Model the fold of this input.
Amino acid sequence: MGTGKSLFDKVWDAHSVRELPNGQTQLFVGLHLIHEVTSPQAFAALREMALPVRFPERTFATVDHIIPTDSQRRPLSDALAEAMLALLERNCREHNIRFFGPESGHQGIVHVIGPELGLTQPGMIIACGDSHTSTHGAFGAIAFGIGTSQVRDILASQCLALSRPQVRRIEVSGKLGAGIYAKDLILAIIRQLGVKGGLGYAYEYAGPAVNALSMEERLTLCNMSIEGGARAGYVNPDEATFEYLRGREFAPRGEAFERAVAWWRSLHSDVDAAYADRVELEGRSVPPSVTWGINPGQNIGIGEQIPRPEEVPESERPALAEALTHMGLRAGEPIAGTPIDVAFIGSCTNGRISDLREAARVARAGVVAPGVRALVVPGSQAVAEQAEAEGLDAIFRSAGFEWREPGCSMCLAMNPDKLRGREICASSSNRNFKGRQGSPTGRTLLMSPAMVAAAALRGKVVDVREIL
Amino acid sequence: MQVKQRIERVSGRACVLRGDDIDTDRIIPARYLRCVTFDGLGEHAFEDDRQQAKGDHPLDDPRFRGASILIVGRNFGCGSSREHAPQALMRTGFRAFVGASFAEIFSGNCTALGLPCVTLTPEALNSLQDSIELDPAQEIKIDLAKKLITSHAGSVPLSIPEGTRHSLSEGTWNATAVLLEAGAAIERTAATLPYISRFTR
Done:
């Protein structure tokens, strides 16, 4: 039994302002990110209470959920989207908050731009009115998704009132196979622990297979912690973390950077840290994974069959039946070969440059199958610019993919990018909930971006390793 | 500043919504997040589910009309952090939620609106659901002080995180005022953080 501290403990304790009368902790929030969907009501509440923003320099804003991906030209073609964007701009101007709008060159999905600008740093408490804030844990930060009332709390006080979760260590041994990505790993973890397994926990991801992941892969891993029920997930910072941050716009520079690295190193979980529990997973056992149901835990390896009712615990059988009815898939059938209508590459889970490079490697091998609509939506303007400099946009275009402008797009369909009717979509996003991609009867198959590209070329779900 | 509203008891008729892992996209589809206020969300709660159920959804069941307590399953409110979800349910008339478990962001959002999320053991939840479905007109009483839920099936203990119970019963569930009470301690904590005090360029 360990007596040391985990990174979680160290970061939590460093940010504790005080214990509250109700037993929760008042935590200082080092980085607050906001966007157009969950902030307007918070600013309105602040105005109603006649309160200023306490630390305007610790909040950064961008526009991502509602922005169209065909053209970001102002005024936006969608009047309601334009109104939401204009209100965010006004709120930021009024409260002296830095806003990365479409004209800034830094606009993008909030969980893509935080890391790429160097705003996201080890040892911070980070919060954003978006459940995928867990993404930022990739840097050894503790990052929480929050609701609009808490956005209001942070604007007013730079603090959150939270109960301390337990910490579960998830250790992945060995290494992932060729053609297997962080997306497959997190899907495998959620499949094993379930979509409610993480309730009350923060996940610490560790072990050789995790340490070998690039920073962008770690972002993918931490991003979907919330799909496993864990509000936060993190990886201890290491050389890869420090090298990623070196030279980023908002990262410390020169001698300050060296001082920062020394502090960041000290945050690493102690070897004898105490955890509520530990889970082990074998890296080489992780297959290319695909969801067959209506929550991210309902996934299998590409070579497996959709479970039959008798193969799952009795308590899960109604959920299985409901999922198969919605999906129009049959128990006992292989997931490979399932025909698709749409392919979506993008989102805060898999819309970064390394994701686009892997998808482009596949796209080079052919053209999009007849009848398939395929979209590539870069996660940020910086990702788009880099991809264009590398000629990835040309590869996608010549293979028949649409190359779009940055935003959340078809991950949650708050802009015009939506499924129609019962369309079925191979998607690199994070949620396969009923109706998630904009059509109440639409269907989603979650998988890695390379797998989505492969599905686009073949018109059906295939093992990407056949193409790579 | 808002007046403190202490929430120690919620009572009323209940609506039973069976099923686990009901996500916030189902509670309020994303297209209704295209707004800058929470007004009018109530009429869209569970819109797609209700449409697909063609009138056979618990929220459209005349026996449950006027219910102020929603009885759910496990992991209710998973997925998106959208506060629009509890806002929509609150505007439909719900004042409390009873289930086997709740997603954390959802229950935190509920607390911030003064809506208790309480949990029961699976057995107790089952008998409560059965009892309400047999007699939907009965009054259900949630007592946060005694930590009991009472129905025709009897009184059973409920669980609620102590911090949440405390905030609701003390009327401090709107956290802004509580957090501001820390005063200059906020700036003092900030000053101890190396990334604020020592790495600035």
Notes: The domain at 166-236+267-285 of chain A is CATH 3.40.1060.10 (Aconitase; Domain 2). The longest strand of chain A covers residues 166-173.
